[in-house]
């Protein structure tokens, strides 16, 4: 006798909507349901589920990330579903509402939520300050922390290269979203200018750009923000100290006495600005030969310990000279990801694990006239 197959149970569209709504926007770091980005959802008898996702911008670079996350969310409710996703764009009103939701109704800046902020500085260029910052950021993110990296080296930016990304950040009604790579939220002038294009901004524009990186970038809730400063004690460094008074200095030097001398100037500047110093990182330290165990002090010895002594802080790490670090930088994959078992990756992870939390001393600081 001919028997009709039992019809599949109807799909619970509300449950699908709830699951899709919980998908987190990869750059805004909030559920897309709360952001008004989930449009119509339909389901037919054959198990086809259609979902409309409204993106912040038609050229959203994260379409494929959305596609896979939304598909997974639908299948968490209907495991056998075929999923068809149609991408649209938020209309002007929805964009405005979303911007207000993220920034607040005023035109004031987006509050920066980052209980730990470190300004990574060096006396001169080429000592590996950006390399240390990038790897420290990834190692902190690997601990499960929400990490932001602000490339404040506006002329000599290297964050796009070190992380292997070069695309414009998504922007929405005056709000910029950091570009995420290797688990770190990044912002750099390098994302805003064309490849190999020189940055010719002058002092006031640079100050403005930094201010915008802090007030118009929706970093989301961060646990740690690292700021990769330009080398030396120039205007940008001073601007940043002013804009982010809660930052602690992390000084990077090579073992060379000359590098240590110039780095100590940065330490003195921090002291003058009453900025606490979190510690010293010595980079390009003695490399130990894997085969014979001999160490080669290619860039001299002792600079990190002397600087730490002078600043009255701890020498937090000695990162060896390692060809893998240079290769990783050239390839755009930080060495803690590219060669996680290498000695240098191990050093970066222990630097991240032991990074002290320091508070700015209020001794001797003028008292605020009013307390909010
Ligand atoms: P800075 O930010 O101080 O100007 P970078 O981080 O750009 O310096 O590093 C300068 C160069 O040195 C880069 O090519 C980088 O790959 C390389 N480098 C940095 N640290 C090391 C290291 N520990 N071993 C080998 N090469 C390194």
Could you walk me through the main structural features you see in this protein, from its secondary elements to its overall organization?
By secondary structure, the chain is of the alpha/beta class. The protein has two domains: 13-103, 2-Layer Sandwich (GMP Synthetase, Chain A, domain 3), CATH 3.30.300; 116-354, P-loop containing nucleotide triphosphate hydrolases (Rossmann fold). Helix content is 34%, strand content 20%. The chain contains twelve helices and 15 strands. The strands form four sheets. An eight-stranded mixed sheet has the order 8-9-5-10-4-11-12-15. A three-stranded mixed sheet has the order 1-2-3, with helices on one face. Residues 122, 125-131, 158, 283-284, 319, 321-322, 325-326, 329 line the site of adenosine-5'-diphosphate. The site of adenosine-5'-diphosphate (ADP) has 17 residues, from helix 4, strand 12 and helix 10.
């Amino acid at each position: 006798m001919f028997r009709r197959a039992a019809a599949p149970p109807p799909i619970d569209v509300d449950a699908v909507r709830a699951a899709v709504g919980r998908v987190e926007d990869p750059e805004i770091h909030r559920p897309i349901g709360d952001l008004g980005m989930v449009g119509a959802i339909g389901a037919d008898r054959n198990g086809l589920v259609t979902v409309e996702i409204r993106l912040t911008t038609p050229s959203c670079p994260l379409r494929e990330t959305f596609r896979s996350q939304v598909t997974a969310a639908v299948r968490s409710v209907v495991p056998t579903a075929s999923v068809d996703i149609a991408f649209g764009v938020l209309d002007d009103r929805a964009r405005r509402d979303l911007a207000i939701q993220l920034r607040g109704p005023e035109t004031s800046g987006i509050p920066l939520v980052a209980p730990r902020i470190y300004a990574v500085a060096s006396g001169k260029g080429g000592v590996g300050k950006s390399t240390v910052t990038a790897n420290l950021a990834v190692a902190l993110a690997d601990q499960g922390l929400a990490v932001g990296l602000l490339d404040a080296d506006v002329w000599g930016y290297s964050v796009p290269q070190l992380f292997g990304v070069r695309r414009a950040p998504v922007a929405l009604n005056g709000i910029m979203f950091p570009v995420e790579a290797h688990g770190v939220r990044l912002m750099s002038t390098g994302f805003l200018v064309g490849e190999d294009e020189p940055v010719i901004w002058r002092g006031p524009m640079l100050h403005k750009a930094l201010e915008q990186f802090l007030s118009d970038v929706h970093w989301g809730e961060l646990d740690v923000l690292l700021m990769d400063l330009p080398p030396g004690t120039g205007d940008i460094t001073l601007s940043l100290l002013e804009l982010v008074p809660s930052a602690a200095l992390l000084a990077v030097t090579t073992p060379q006495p000359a590098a240590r001398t110039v780095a100590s100037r940065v330490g003195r500047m921090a002291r003058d600005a009453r900025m606490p110093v979190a510690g010293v990182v010595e980079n390009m330290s003695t490399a130990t030969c894997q085969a014979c165990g001999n160490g080669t002090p290619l860039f001299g010895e002792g600079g990190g310990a002397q600087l730490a002594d002078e600043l009255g802080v701890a020498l937090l790490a000695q990162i060896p000279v390692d060809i893998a670090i240079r290769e990783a930088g050239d390839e755009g994959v930080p060495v803690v990801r590219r060669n996680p078992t290498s000695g240098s990756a191990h050093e970066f992870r222990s630097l991240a694990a032991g990074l002290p939390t320091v508070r700015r001393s209020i001794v001797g600081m003028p008292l605020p006239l009013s307390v909010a």
